[in-house]
Design brief:
Structural class: mainly alpha
Number of domains: 2
Number of helices: 9
Helix content: over 70%
Order of helices and strands: HHHHHHHHH
Number of strands: 0
Length: 160
């Protein structure tokens, strides 16, 4: 939501020829796929038949392919290199601040969302992201105070 509502309109002014409509369309396709996956996870046991599992596999594979295409296009268009090239330091800070506020307002509960974000980043991205957080969040809340809440998610985290 933050990208579609804030980042892409912000970028369209600076990079009018950018593929922002395509990126937003891909977001909607991902949301549709996630909805299909979510409905399958709450389905009655009789839905766990071979045909349904094949459909789930197809949806997950399609989502993975879409994600790989999407993130490559997004990084190429508005990734760190492009941000340094097309935005001033103050514009980068303004956008980061707006996205941060938006993310905090829409990402609840924090004790589940924050660890999910942090522990699904590469080591270098995680290090940079943690620098943006208040020290109490990065050093106390996520790894200690909230751990009992997010620990059951460990199988779904890339790097703990």
């Amino acid at each position: 939501m933050g990208e579609d509502e804030l980042a892409f309109p912000f970028w369209k002014i600076r990079l009018p020829a950018g593929p922002f409509d395509e990126l937003s369309k891909q977001h909607q396709q991902m949301i549709t796929s996630l909805g299909q996956i979510e409905s399958w996870t709450v389905a009655e046991p009789d839905a766990w038949q071979v045909k349904a599992i094949d459909e789930l596999h197809h949806t997950l594979s399609g989502l993975q392919n879409l994600w790989e295409t999407h993130i490559a296009l997004e990084e190429e268009t508005v990734g760190p290199e492009k941000s340094r090239q097309h935005l001033s330091l103050s514009e980068n800070e303004q956008l980061r601040s707006q996205l941060s506020e938006h993310g905090q307002a829409h990402s609840q509960p924090g004790e589940l969302v924050m660890p999910f974000i942090v522990y699904n980043l590469s080591a270098s991205d995680r290090e940079e992201y943690l620098k943006l957080l208040p020290p109490v969040v990065a050093n106390q809340l996520i790894p200690v105070t909230w751990k009992a809440a997010w620990e059951p998610m460990i199988p779904f985290l890339l790097r703990v």
